[in-house]
Design brief:
single chain, 2 domains, 10 strands, globular, alpha+beta, 15% strand
């Protein structure tokens, strides 16, 4: 791609060594006027914004800085902001989608899209931070951090950071967001401390699944939910879930759980399709359609 996707002018070709693209500055092809770079890969090239906020509709910038600076995994803070400049960023997709509903008082529609009955949404937490009360002293945040430290022996700098948590009057929902990838796997050693007998029927199957993020979220969410009903939602692209469903890992993970019905998989494809039937702003529907049904989901070629 040699034309800026925003202004249509020819891209500048930088005289710098070609390497793996980790940020805007690594891009050989750039539009300096728009602050847009094109990743250096030969295939599946990605648009990268110099300013990550240019990757997010302006109407959804509200509270973003406050929440990002308090995200509970402080080691990944700087890298998170860089990654959010990539059009393919899962964190950016998470923020755009979930912040729209709470900012615009449309959480009833959000619950409906996720397949739940409408009830009061107390708060939505992004990376462990409250949207309604983005403060280090927020009670839910403090409780989460204490659980990670005391129950799961996590190091302070490397706390687990759930993508999204929705708290309603009766439920706690952890949401593991995927975009252009399948669910992450990890070594058995990373999984062990999250395997609590109260929440798993079969440790061997959970271990064999290797689904580190899902196992971690299942246990942490069950602990923090206390007297509320707990759900773990896994949202991804249909094509990736279809591929994943042919593998043994997801079957093993599901069979290992003590409450299988509370692990729910949803596709972005169906969620965005159903948005067309709701009272939702056109700009937001357009943005989500571009993200989910656009050419190669953020990739250029």
């Amino acid at each position: 791609m040699d034309i800026c996707p925003k202004c249509g002018e020819p891209l500048t070709i930088e005289n710098i060594p070609q390497k793996k693209t980790t940020n805007y500055n690594d891009c050989i092809k750039k539009c300096k006027t728009c602050g847009i770079g094109i990743s250096n890969s030969k295939t599946n090239q990605t648009i990268i914004y110099k300013n990550f906020k240019d990757n997010i509709p302006k109407s959804l910038h509200y509270k973003l800085d406050d929440i990002l600076k308090l995200s509970i995994n402080q080691v990944s803070h700087k890298q998170k902001i860089i990654r959010m400049g990539f059009v393919t960023s899962e964190d950016t997709l998470s923020w755009i989608f979930f912040s729209y509903f709470i900012k615009n008082n449309k959480t009833d529609i959000l619950l409906k899209l996720l397949g739940f009955k409408i009830e009061e949404v107390v708060d939505i937490y992004f990376w462990g931070v409250s949207y309604n009360d983005p403060s280090i002293n927020n009670n839910f945040r403090k409780t989460l951090v204490n659980i990670l430290k005391d129950k799961f022996n996590e190091e302070e700098k490397y706390y687990s950071e759930p993508d999204i948590i929705i708290e309603t009057k009766t439920k706690i929902m952890f949401i593991e967001v995927k975009y252009n990838s399948e669910n992450s796997t990890g070594k058995v050693e990373k999984i062990k401390k999250y395997l609590k007998k109260e929440y798993f029927l079969d440790f061997k199957k959970a271990n064999k699944s290797l689904y580190y993020e899902l196992i971690r979220n299942w246990s942490i969410g069950n602990v923090i939910s206390k007297n509320k009903e707990y759900y773990l939602l896994n949202i991804g692209l249909k094509r990736n879930f279809d591929k994943e469903n042919t593998k043994e890992n997801i079957i093993l993970f599901h069979e290992s759980l003590n409450n299988k019905n509370n692990f729910i998989r949803l596709t972005w494809d169906k969620i965005v399709e159903n948005m067309n039937n709701e009272e939702i702003d056109l700009y937001f529907i357009t943005e989500m359609n571009k993200k989910i049904f656009g050419k190669a989901n953020g990739h250029i070629a």
